[in-house]
Specification:
mainly alpha, about 260 residues, about 0% strand, about 80% helix
Length: about 260
């Protein structure tokens, strides 16, 4: 029979993978990869603030990730050079987070666990947070699916139909902050963006509809999570990076298959 901690790790990884894959489709469609990266890097600063003020890590990461995401969104609407702004904010947030953790008085913090994840240490309480957060994200995305899709693919059509692209973007920003907050224990701040992007990118060549891409992305995300855990257990490697490695392998396979199956003119 499987050890209890492995069951908790598998459930936590699956919970994160489902929410990340669904949201990842919009990240890929909107070309928000660097946006997600900057938000994820801010998570470490949220960890430091949470420990410093003695509040829950989830709450600290959620607040800081949300502030970072909203700040980036505000900059994008003011005509700033987004690649430069995102690069500065992403690395500055990570650096300030690392320094802040080191400055915490008397705190023994495993920085590596927050950078690369420690899913094998997930507790029942962590599972509750992961699945509650993932459920909120999944339900919110499914509830607003058509509006989000229209605002993403054709903002002008969305406005003509009475929708607000800005409001839909705010919903995605909130969802991104929640996913970052629940995923930091599983895969860590440096690997969250990979779990958001890779399953969706791997699903894209084979999807004929947005809904099909989302379903395939979820399947690939869950396969990466479980396959990565199994590989980490056998190879005695860190679970978070191994999950991302499996996802990357699936992405490479999807690219090769899509090229092999492409009609030759």
């Amino acid at each position: 029979m499987l050890d209890d901690f492995l069951v908790r790790a598998a459930l936590g990884a699956v919970g994160v993978a489902i929410a990340a894959a669904l949201l990842g489709c919009f990240v890929v469609w909107r070309r928000m990869a660097y946006f997600g990266d900057a938000t994820a890097h801010a998570a470490l600063l949220g960890v430091a603030l949470a420990l410093g003020f003695e509040i829950s890590v989830f709450a600290g990461v959620l607040v800081v990730a949300l502030v970072m995401a909203l700040s980036i969104s505000a900059l994008s609407g003011r005509g700033h050079a987004m690649d430069t702004s995102l690069g500065v904010m992403a690395h500055a947030a990570l650096a300030f987070g690392l320094v802040a953790v080191e400055l915490l008085p008397g705190a023994q913090v495993d920085i590596e666990a927050y950078l690369f994840g420690d899913i094998l240490a997930v507790s029942r309480g962590d599972l509750l947070v992961i699945w509650a957060g993932s459920a909120v994200v999944a339900v919110g995305l499914l509830w607003r699916w058509q509006a989000l899709l229209t605002a993403t693919l054709n903002p002008e059509l969305a406005i003509a139909g009475g929708l607000s692209p800005v409001r839909e973007e705010r919903l995605l920003i909130l969802a991104l902050a929640v996913v970052v907050a629940v995923a930091i224990k599983a895969v860590g701040a440096l690997l969250i963006t990979a779990l958001l992007i890779i399953p969706a990118a791997a699903a894209r060549p084979f999807a004929r509809t947005p809904e099909g891409m989302a379903l395939l992305a979820v399947a690939l995300g869950v396969s990466s999570a479980l396959g990565g855990l199994a590989a980490a257990w056998r190879l005695d490697t860190q679970a978070g990076p191994t999950i991302v490695c499996v996802a990357a392998i699936l992405f490479a396979v999807s690219i090769l298959l899509s090229r092999a199956l492409a009609p030759r003119g």
